[in-house]
Design brief:
It is a single chain. This protein has helices at residues 23-39, 76-83, 88-105; strands spanning 5-18, 46-55, 60-73, 106-119, 124-129. By secondary structure, it is α+β, with helices and mostly antiparallel strands. It has one domain: Alpha-Beta Plaits. A five-stranded antiparallel sheet has the order 2-3-1-4-5.
């Protein structure tokens, strides 16, 4: 297998697990958050919905839905640059309009950052958490 890598991307996924009856509100707020990020000139990302039939944290068979924010960055430096480019006003606005409200709507939050390595043929070689 060719192990000569031409590049890598950083994939960030924030998973929001809504409280009972709060799924639609979490989805709407995450979409609003992406619009606000775009307004700030940041990466808006994509909003996804995931469903799983096993809630491993509680060991019960049931459907668990989550709202996921998915974003990709060309490398770790690009991610760090964006994270460090928020103004104090932008951080305050995002906190007030999004984060303070989201905390009231979710039972659980999970953030995952993964490195996507590409080989010379631009096929996926492997994913690795960093």
């Amino acid at each position: 297998m060719d192990r000569t890598y031409t590049g890598q991307k950083i994939i960030v996924q924030n998973q929001y697990f809504p409280k009972t009856g709060k799924f639609d509100e979490v989805l709407a707020l995450r979409i609003a958050a992406s619009k606000l990020l775009k307004e700030f000139g940041m990466t808006a990302g994509r909003v996804l919905i995931t469903r799983q039939t096993m809630d491993r944290a509680k060991g019960k068979q049931k459907e668990v839905a989550a709202v996921v924010w998915h974003s990709e960055y060309r490398n770790l430096e690009a991610l760090k640059t964006e994270l460090n480019s928020y103004t104090a006003e932008q951080e305050s606005r995002f906190q007030k309009e999004i984060l303070d409200k989201m905390r009231l709507l979710v039972d659980r939050f999970k953030k995952q950052e993964t490195t996507l390595f590409l080989n010379n043929s631009t096929h996926l070689n492997y994913l690795a958490p960093f």
